[in-house]
Design a protein that fits this description.
single chain; alpha/beta; five-stranded mixed beta sheet; 12 helices; 45% helix; globular
Length: 310
């Protein structure tokens, strides 16, 4: 069957269309995305303002039209941290449903971590052993660990690259004191969770998902996305340590000129690098592997798992 998964994220609204059935890997058929930056459209009270809601409704309608044009039999819509944490979330969800017919499922941070972990487990398989999965989104950081398809530990922290950039890195390029302060803040937040994971022992394989990690790996020398899903891509902590001061000294326009860095993500790449560096350091990861699958694939896989067998 042809499925669409509609991801209302902190950075983008992304419709991924796949051909899928139980027991088979989802095959991408089409991708439709729009940069919305909901995390940056919150007002001082933490609400998504009228302009932001207008843009969200319009973007969802465009995505639904794309899903119809591509022949989707089912669309699985969900929202993550930007909607979840908006002070007017209920009103936003009601308006989206009234004007588009879409009843958005708002995932908790832990659900995000668990679904992303499921996608990584299915991608790497049982031979990967105990997995530690790290995902940096626009609004939050998810970390999960386990040996099965359900992780033994899963947490979500308010350390998304877009959120941190908007609130703590206002300059372009940023003030070195702001960078130092953000690094300290990131490490303090992550350090509080390390004990929850360390009691399970060291992971056999550490992997990362998300656009932030893919871009960091690319500027550190990993293969281009055009070379396909099945080429191994890794990111070392040594590379991050080398790149963070370089990114700190660059403007967003200069970062956008780096290999694989999109203009829309360039401004928040430094914050993402600081989160990645802090997570790798505190979890003792000298190197991690980039997983092509993430939350959207996890949502699809879980939905397929619950289809009736007859």
């Amino acid at each position: 069957m042809r499925l669409g998964v509609l991801d209302i994220g902190s950075n983008t609204v992304h419709l991924l269309v796949v051909d899928a059935h139980p027991g088979a890997r989802p095959q991408p058929a089409h991708s439709h995305k729009a940069d919305l930056r909901l995390a940056e459209l919150l007002d001082e009270s933490g609400a998504i303002g009228p302009h932001g809601v207008d843009r969200l409704v319009s973007t969802v309608l465009d995505a639904l039209q794309a899903a119809e044009d591509k022949g989707c039999e089912e669309v699985l819509p969900f929202a993550t941290s930007a909607v979840r944490e908006a002070t007017n979330a209920d009103a936003v969800l009601s308006r989206v449903k009234a004007e588009t017919g879409v009843d958005l499922t708002v995932l908790t941070g832990e659900e995000e971590a668990r679904l992303t972990f499921l996608a990584a487990r299915r991608w790497f398989g049982w031979s990967a052993g105990k997995l530690l999965v790290i995902d940096i989104g626009g609004g939050s950081l998810e970390i999960a660990y386990g040996i099965d398809e359900e992780p033994d530990a899963a947490v979500s922290l308010p350390l998304g690259a877009g959120r941190l950039t908007a609130s703590l890195l206002p300059g372009d390029p940023p003030d070195p004191l702001d960078v130092k302060s953000l690094r300290r803040h990131v490490r303090t937040e992550i350090a509080r969770t390390v004990g929850e994971f360390s009691r399970f022992g060291r992971p056999d394989h550490i992997v990362a998902t998300s656009k932030t990690f893919k871009q960091l790996a690319r500027i550190a020398g990993a293969a281009r996305s055009a070379e396909g899903l099945y080429i191994q891509r890794v990111l070392s902590r040594a590379s991050l340590v080398d790149w963070v001061p370089k990114l700190s000294a660059m403007t967003a326009e200069q970062r956008a000129g780096l290999p694989g860095v999109s203009p829309g993500r360039a401004r928040q790449l430094l914050a993402g690098a600081l989160v990645a560096e802090g997570a790798m350091d505190l979890f003792g990861a000298e190197e991690l592997e980039i997983c092509p699958w993430a939350l959207r694939e996890g949502v699809i896989l879980r939905w397929l798992d619950h289809l009736p067998t007859s």
